[in-house]
Amino acid sequence: MAGDRENGRPGPIEDYALLSDLRTAALVGKDGSIDWLCLPRFDSPSCFARLLGGDDDGHWTIAPSGPVQRVQRRYRGNSLIVETEFHTASGVVRLIDSMPPHEKNQDDEPCVVRVVEGVSGAVEVDLRWVVRFAYGDSVPWVYQDERSEPVPDRCIVAVAGPHTVVLRGDLLPQRTAKGRAHELAFTVRAGEKYAWVMQWSPSPDELPAPMDPLQETKDSEDFWRDWTRKIDYRGPHASAVYRSLATLKALTYAPSGGMVAAPTTSLPEVLSGNRNWDYRYCWLRDATLVLLALDNYGCVEEAAAWRSWLVRAVAGDPADLQIMYGVNGERHLLEWEADWLPGYHGASPVRIGNAAFRQRQLDVYGEVMDALHLARERGLTETAQSWALQRGMLRHLEKIWDQPDNGLWEVRGPERYFTHSRVMVWVAFDRAIRAVEEDGLPGPVESWREIRHAVHTEVLAKAWNDDLGAFTQYYGGTTLDAATLLLPAVGFLSGDDERVRSTVHAVQANLQHGVLVDRYTTGAETNEVDGLTGREGSFLACSFWMVDALALCGRRKEAEDMFAELLRLANDVGLYAEEYDVHTGRFTGNFPQAFSHLALINSASVLYGGRTREEINRRGTSAGSRQD
User: Fold this and answer.
1) Could you say which of 181, 276, 285, 628 would form a disulfide bridge with 130 (CB–CB 3.0 to 4.6 Å)?
2) For residues 160 and 138, what is the distance between their CA atoms, to the nearest angstrom?
3) Domain presence at residue 621
4) pLDDT in tens, 537-554
5) Three-class SS of residue 369?
6) φ, ψ dihedrals at 466, nearest 5°
7) Contact (Cβ atoms closer than 8 angstroms) between residue 2 and residue 68
């Protein structure tokens, strides 16, 4: 850890823990350094970007100045308060990090609270505060401000253009002679506490009022304790389910209810690779899993807020439906490269925005229709406006359902007839038919039945490969895709269908490594499907999909064993990245990844008694497969 600080490089992805105030998020490493923080929203420019560069790109480190013998770290209960204990030869100090959650008060500004307390002995501690706005590109003007009215106040203010942060604390760091940083060295003895608060401000002319850091830490703990009381889960591996649900809550933008896929951008899918994307946005593809995860375990308010965000985001001309939106439903997520940042351990480019928002991905129609169908089944009242919106989507899908697309993996190669996309087109019409049959909503059900039947017949004829004994990645192809594991989960075929069982076997034989499953085959050369070079790590969500598929195929013991093994891959505070590199034993991809935690929660439902799409719904009608 000391070595990482000395060379200015960020630590391994798995060394980070998540802080969140339900507006934005920070990542703090085992070395006591906050290396990533965007203010005031998840998708705002960063003020700490060491994660994608080095020390000079912004960070806030509090850690022992000398050698550290051991680090112990945990979240306090089910909260988002991180406690890191540094054991040294002279004693032990505890670093307590949090971001006070602001769920209801829309006027509260983001802040980070850090407390150091002496546990035993006496430990020399260093504090280094380096603010760099605009993804490390903007060095602020930093000055001390001291006032006597309305209350005595002494702070450090960092300003650059529209960006302002204020640092207050028991001890304030001083400007260094070089490096354009602020530093402080002090001794912490057993029983002593020192605290700091860094607040964002929309203007340097109106600084936010001072806060009591110890009270804010207590209030944060109370918030998370009260929130987790609503979680209803009594199955095994409860700590993993609770941590995953808290992570999803932490990735939710409270003012709108939208959930970002991850709080980071450009963490590489393979170390030193170029498969680097910005995930600080809300994907429609996550819609069904979000509703299942939240509603299954008692988070009804969050499920309703997500449904409301979903309806608002997709409102408008159905022809303009996007696969992803900003946290407030923003449509334009233009992609550009921050070429002054070298990237995580040199993995460039660093991308801001995501050009995939312009892609045609037909599976999102199925995801949205499935999510809103589930919302009806779970007791969320359907409105005339919401059903009219869905009718409009179906009218547009009737015109384009037979076109190729870029698929759920957002490939940047040529459009194809991806099997998963075709299946999700079937899902869209299936859920519309069920809305008429089961909920009495109006619609041209006969026309929808014809298309549903045509798509089902087409997939069975064109996606199946006799030589492979499996459904392939796309029509006429010879490669496999882990997304075909979802066929029984969405009800396209039952788990006991021999074609499903054979596909599961083929994916295990060709894409699985131990308990880890790749999305599809990648290699050193340019991949003709995704248009990119290099390989990637194993996709953790796909690994949990295999758990679900095994369970639905009747192989429950294998599914439970695999689930338990996957839980052991979480980092020390229970978090998952997007992918896992089997060659290095390291996390890769953006972190923490909502999709991974959603898949974990859904697997717990499949195995241990939550409500899934394959089980009886609240009205007592079957939600099983429909193959006609």
Assistant:
1) 181
2) 7
3) no
4) 789 999 999 999 999 999
5) helix
6) -60, -40
7) yes
